[in-house]
Amino acid sequence: MSDPLIALFTSFVLAIFIGFEVISRVPTLLHTPLMSGSNAIHGIILIGALLIAAHAQTPVEIVLGFLAVVLATINVVGGFVVTDRMLEMFKARQPAGEKGKEK
Amino acid sequence: MIIVTSLVYLLAAVLFIIGLKFLSSPRGARRGNWIAAVGMVLAVAWTVVLLGRSFTPVGIAISIVGVMIGAVVGTLSARAVKMTAIPQMIAVFNGVGGGAAAVVAMSELLKLVGQQPNFQIDFPSAFAIIIGGVSFAGSAIAFLKLQELMTGSPVTYPGQQLVNGVLGLLILALAVVLLTVGSSALVVTALMVLALVLGVAFVLPIGGADMPVVISLLNAFTGLAVAASGFVLGNFALIVAGTLVGASGTLLTKLMSDAMGRSLTNILFSAFGQVQVGAGVASGAENRTARSGSSDDLGTMLAYSRSVIIVPGYGLAVAQGQHAVRELADTLEKRGVEVAYAIHPVAGRMPGHMNVLLAEANVPYEQLKEMDEINDEFKRVDVALVVGANDVVNPAARSSPGSPIYGMPILNADQAHNVVFLKRSMRPGFAGIDNDLLYDPKTVMLFGDAKESLTKLVVAIKAA
Of B19, B39, B73, which one is at a domain's C-terminal end? Predict the structure, then answer.
């Protein structure tokens, strides 16, 4: 294996451990938003899509590049927006909750 | 340039990690999502800068148009989707990501047609195509099932194992050809097509009730497919972000299946619905009768009770009755009745889904009780009001080992002094199993649409 590959492989292995550690305790309340949020993060494939789209030359490459960019962008944008929409509701609930206490 | 790129990608990776960390705590969740989004914008923007002048004219055109189309479609659908349909929306966003990863790998492989096999590219490419393709097609089926465009029950046919086995072997064979002979348009295309077929075959035999866990698993798959594409392109950002999602998604999948009291293998490979036929849980159901009551009687009963626990289920969400249930709770509270909501971990169609729906109706946070917190309260409570839920209060999960939901933690609604079910019919719940609690002498049914029933109850309580 070449040096850059070793570095990438190292990052890969370390990222596995971080991925497990970082969400060790999640209340069920947040399972859905968390899934949705991490779903948006794998939209990073947009970078890969741009890399192939940028240098597309043959018709096949153009079609594939275009397809990849569209799909990846839907993933990123839709993912973050829908997660925010869900979490916005949790936030809106705080004032309502305090009102409940005052009663 | 290379150093800056590495640093920008590293920064993005750190932001993703912090974002995920925040996302798993109630207080910082929304901020976490934003932090991750900032990381994403940074990484993508820098990639565009980096590509700079190397963009071909066509490349610029398809990138700009592609991003615009994707952004509009993504934003509009994420804004328009009803909160009840969130699970299938996530499935779609996940599927397209997996599809993108597979397409990226495909495109890279097609550049190598006619060359000697190159393990460092071929291996991760094959992986990305297979896993990404499975994720794309599997998510599509999950969407169809949840959207009820196709049957939610497990689809099985004779020889299914054999078909799936042959499919797996074919894919493996193609991957071996790719690694030994090298890339060719035929092999790459065939691999992609078979991966899609495998995705369909994988999700078809899984019941609709288990789709959330499947979506979570496919989410982890997409993460891994993205990481594999990262190896193909030698891109740090893809590898780290993809792996983070792959690992955390796997853990989340496990947490979800734990919440349902089942093992992941059981969910994926048991063809859920089939079990109940053999177990004969529904035996004798036809002879029993359930007691049905009028909304006036039930309203009076609720109005003069001291404490009520509401058990909301997916039926409530379908009827869009979140606001009506809140009105009912408020009316009862005004009369001095203690009200709490018991939220089963998998109430709704996804863990945490019911919290989202009730939050939408501004139900006070402190009234929402998680299962462990409230389960001991049921025996002291006058009325358990079950609104559009069924499987999560089915005592069979505790008492009959033959039942497919046996072992699933349930809410102890059956221990309340009285049980009121608001249900459309006697039809079994999503898991397709009969519920003994419906026939219990202390249970009263109020048939009809959850929202209408709730509104009638409110009127009755006010009159009482």
Answer: B73
